[in-house]
């Protein structure tokens, strides 16, 4: 609030003006395309396993080469140890030169280094000549003196292979230590890795291209579907999703379901428009009659009392007709919105049908129509008495109205262990085959002239249909033009009352 002040007639006046608050903009959720989600998923699922497999294979190859090198060095060390033992190298100094030449030659040929140590870890011979006379305390030498051949890779990438030298009485008089550099293995593995990476890159490119195409194939129909649904939300119910796929899958099912929804929406919209047109027509007719009748009275002078009474009776009849239409419409609206609760209770259906016949019998006698009621057995069911009575009465009333004089209306009540069956058959004008499915539409009449004597409000069968549906039942029509109509109602004997 911003206060403004000014003087009026010497008095201080304060006006509080409400300042306009800035509108808060709703944060729109960040849009993340399904295509990119699919693509990212495919990359994770497709390429990451390739990388893991390639890395695993590369490490396995490297481990294999190293293990083979260990075995090779241990084998050479054992050969040298055997020669040292056979030539009594450790104790006979006379014959050392020839054996040292042999060890030096083996070292040069295989590109490894050989050290001979005595039992006190003193270097007796070294093909590299740098360690002679030095003491070497390393774990491999200690383990070899304990009669354990060992080969181990060091942190600097060198392999030590140590083998003991046997003396008399199976004693350990020294150790042969062979060392080798693994740089050649590293180079070999690196070359393999380069070629593998090139192959992996090629595969990754191919996989990504395939994934882009596949994500496009999957998401393009969804985009088309979204466009159609957006058009439908704007009221263009004629929109349809084009289905060209020869393969039946979930996307085709989704497109077909969307088209079925569009068909239903278009049908509902058409029905709504027809309903509005029918309501307008039904209410316009009595209103026009009332206007004509009232104007006739107003425009005439010295109108006799008898004419006033006659015209007012006619106006009253038209008002009653309008009230009946409006009441039926309100009933249908409540039934559609499930606003009317059903009061279920046990009811003798034979008594109900007999009561309906008794009430409508005078209407049948006026047209000399015989009502025949066939009771197969006594039947009690859980129903809403008032609503079901109205629904069945509408059926019988329609049968009497559309049956010519001297005709017959037959009612039948039957049941099995689950359902009750009520049929109403007449020998009336019947219904054309192409219009049988429309008899429960609102304001539909077989009599196209909408005659007031036979047509009623045109809502009775719609109310009947809604009532039967609320009883979890079904209603079917069998008719042949100029021969008659049979309507069969099925409702459960017991309702699931919560």
From TrEMBL:
<dbReference type="InterPro" id="IPR003661">
    <property type="entry name" value="HisK_dim/P_dom"/>
</dbReference>
<protein>
    <recommendedName>
        <fullName>histidine kinase</fullName>
        <ecNumber>2.7.13.3</ecNumber>
    </recommendedName>
</protein>
<dbReference type="InterPro" id="IPR004358">
    <property type="entry name" value="Sig_transdc_His_kin-like_C"/>
</dbReference>
<feature type="domain" description="HAMP">
    <location>
        <begin position="216"/>
        <end position="270"/>
    </location>
</feature>
<dbReference type="InterPro" id="IPR036097">
    <property type="entry name" value="HisK_dim/P_sf"/>
</dbReference>
<dbReference type="GO" id="GO:0004721">
    <property type="term" value="F:phosphoprotein phosphatase activity"/>
</dbReference>
<keyword id="KW-1133">Transmembrane helix</keyword>
<keyword id="KW-0472">Membrane</keyword>
<dbReference type="GO" id="GO:0016036">
    <property type="term" value="P:cellular response to phosphate starvation"/>
</dbReference>
<dbReference type="Pfam" id="PF00512">
    <property type="entry name" value="HisKA"/>
</dbReference>
<dbReference type="GO" id="GO:0005886">
    <property type="term" value="C:plasma membrane"/>
</dbReference>
<keyword id="KW-0812">Transmembrane</keyword>
<dbReference type="InterPro" id="IPR003660">
    <property type="entry name" value="HAMP_dom"/>
</dbReference>
<dbReference type="Pfam" id="PF02518">
    <property type="entry name" value="HATPase_c"/>
</dbReference>
<keyword id="KW-0418">Kinase</keyword>
<dbReference type="InterPro" id="IPR036890">
    <property type="entry name" value="HATPase_C_sf"/>
</dbReference>
<keyword id="KW-0808">Transferase</keyword>
<feature type="transmembrane region" description="Helical">
    <location>
        <begin position="198"/>
        <end position="218"/>
    </location>
</feature>
<dbReference type="InterPro" id="IPR005467">
    <property type="entry name" value="His_kinase_dom"/>
</dbReference>
<dbReference type="InterPro" id="IPR003594">
    <property type="entry name" value="HATPase_dom"/>
</dbReference>
<dbReference type="InterPro" id="IPR050351">
    <property type="entry name" value="BphY/WalK/GraS-like"/>
</dbReference>
<keyword id="KW-0902">Two-component regulatory system</keyword>
<dbReference type="GO" id="GO:0000155">
    <property type="term" value="F:phosphorelay sensor kinase activity"/>
</dbReference>
<dbReference type="Pfam" id="PF00672">
    <property type="entry name" value="HAMP"/>
</dbReference>
<keyword id="KW-0597">Phosphoprotein</keyword>
<feature type="transmembrane region" description="Helical">
    <location>
        <begin position="36"/>
        <end position="61"/>
    </location>
</feature>
<feature type="domain" description="Histidine kinase">
    <location>
        <begin position="278"/>
        <end position="495"/>
    </location>
</feature>
